[in-house]
Amino acid sequence: MDRNMTGKTVQSAPGGKLLEVKDLRVSFFTPAGEVKAVGGISYDLDHGEVMGIVGESGSGKSQEAYSIMGLLQSPGKVVGGSITFEGRDVLAFSEEEMTQFRGSEVAMIFQNPMTCLNPVYTVGDQLIEALKAHDKSISREAAAKRAMEMLELVGINNVRKRMKQYPHEFSGGMRQRVMIAMGLICHPKLLIADEPTTALDVTIQAQILELMKDLQKKTRMGIIFITHNLGVVAEICDKVSVMYAGRIVEQGPVDDIFYRPGHPYTMGLLRSMPRVDAESYERLIPIEGTPVDMLDPPEGCPFAPRCEKCMKICLKRMPPYVELGDGHRAACWLRVEDQIGQKREEDGIHG
Ligand SMILES: Nc1ncnc2c1ncn2[C@@H]1O[C@H](COP(=O)(O)OP(=O)(O)OP(=O)(O)O)[C@@H](O)[C@H]1O
Ligand code: SF4
Ligand SMILES: [Mg+2]
To answer: Which of 29, 30, 59, 269 most suits a substitution to test ligand 1, by most atoms within 8 Å of the C-beta?
Structure first.
């Protein structure tokens, strides 16, 4: 076993990325037509890396995450692209392989803990079951011991008593902690956290983020942190993907996104942030204009109807990605123009 919650012996798997997503496309086939919820996104994640996915409601963040977990609900389908986890093709997994993958290598925590906690079983039983599903040879006693250690690790006191309680006997913040414990008990290599703190009050959000940061350092797991909240991104992420209308419009290291944004949507997100300091956990004020109708997206840049810098070409053609720095790229015609201008200048100097 290469993972250890106490952080003593942790090795990355040999070579390669933890996760590689290439040109992933997800559509919902509804009576009204095909809704392209995720329209071709690509990114990768190293072992131990934390990536934030930000974007407004409906931009495709959760459907993208469900695709990795094999949890897309009908009529949603992956219609293109690939998901590779430590070199293995996730989209080709059998149902059994996917269940195994979910239980042991990747875990997801949700905005609402009751999505994954069963109200009719005690918290202890659920943690023990999660462990036993992952490791059939573990005794009930050993599993109970691990479960209690895990609850302590996420900051729950009185664990013996807590193990015998039902989810409704926990406060919102404590339930969130239980869900994190459920997610982490099998030591996943990748944790996908989908808005896990949004419903909580600010102090508890801060505590839970601290806890996740701490666990991440100890275990070197990779994390995909989905959020509307740029304060959270600044706090825990190494890099960020900004999603708009099912696409990643900009991605890059967290400092590039905050201090050198290249896409007008990212700039708008930053402007609409109430405070940019790390202690702020306030939510974004929405950017003016309405989100794209995913049933009938515009022909060119999806942000064009809301973009104050929109040019003619933006209405006709989808902008390509432009590399802005190491691992930093944005899909915007303005950045293409910058590049052309720069090239002309260089040609002028050297010509
Ligand atoms: N059951 C469904 N039927 C049709 N379309 C769907 C369905 N579920 C999701 N979608 C489409 O997928 C798009 C992306 O949804 P997703 O849940 O990924 O958004 P999100 O970015 O996670 O939003 P939020 O921040 O509100 O959670 C939606 O805008 C919608 O068009
Ligand atoms: S491509 Fe055009 S419309 Fe789209 S974000 Fe850039 S400037 Fe705005
Ligand atoms: Mg969502």
So the answer is: 59
Which ligand 1 atom is nearest residue 294's CA? Answer: 31
pTM of the complete model? 0.89
List the pLDDT tens digit at each of the 351 positions of the chain: 343 333 333 344 455 799 999 999 999 999 999 999 999 999 999 999 999 999 988 999 999 999 999 999 999 999 999 999 999 999 999 999 999 898 789 999 887 777 788 999 999 999 999 999 888 899 999 999 999 998 998 889 999 999 999 999 999 889 988 998 898 888 899 999 998 877 677 777 777 788 888 888 888 899 999 988 888 888 889 999 999 999 999 999 999 999 999 999 999 999 887 654 544 444 555 678 888 888 888 889 999 999 999 999 999 999 999 999 999 999 999 999 999 998 888 888 654
Nearest ligand to the CA atom of 66: 1
Report cis status (omega within 30 of 0) of the bond before 75: yes
Residue 82 β-bridge partners: 22
Beta bridge partners of 45: 19
**59 ligand 1 Cβ < 6 A:** yes
Give the neighbor-by-neighbor strand order of the sheet with 88-89.
Answer: 33-45, 19-30, 76-85, 88-89
